[in-house]
Each structure stands twice: as C-alpha cells, then as structure tokens.
Amino acid sequence: MDLALLVDELVANAMCHGAGEQVRLEVWADAGDVVVRASNEVGASSLQPVETWRLPGADAESGRGLGIIRRLCPSIEVSNLDGWVSIECRLQVRDA
After folding, report:
1. Which of 19, 39, 57, 86 has the fewest Cβ atoms surrounding its Cβ within 10 A?
2. How many domains does the chain have?
3. Within 10 A of 65 (CB to CB), how many other CB atoms are there?
4. Mean pLDDT of 26-52
C-alpha cells in the first residue's frame, strides 16, 4: 500500500505542478528497497527543499503530497538536469 500511495503522490504532483506534458516514472529494486523516480519538466526553484516538506493542518484542503512522500521514504533525492526535475525516493520493503 505504501508503494501505491508513493507512486500516486509522485505522479499526481508531477502532473499538477509540472511545466510540460510528460512525466517519466521509473521503478526498480535495489538492495531490498524499492526505488521510485518521477521526473517532469519544471524548474528546480519551484520545488521547496525536502527538509521543508510537511503535512499541512487537518483543515487544509490540499498540499499533503510532499509531506506524505517525506513520511513514507527515509531517503529522498531531488535533482535537476536538462530542464527536468526528478524526485527519487527509496522505500524500505518490509518482510511479509
């Protein structure tokens, strides 16, 4: 469920806040974790630093996406290359 929520939030944010019409989504396994990278055309200046990503108050109508992503993932990297911003998240896989 955490993986589905993470992918949903990354793609929804990229679609809603990206400057272009494309979103790139990559998912792979690495050392027992799942890594998800979502990329879209947008300037890095429009994305707040990861350490500021928080959940808003209970009465907020929107703005939960980045806070949810930060709560789910112990490792988040943001990069900007050739006009594309990428958010790469590492999600720990728990044994069933």
Report:
1. 57
2. 1
3. 18
4. 84
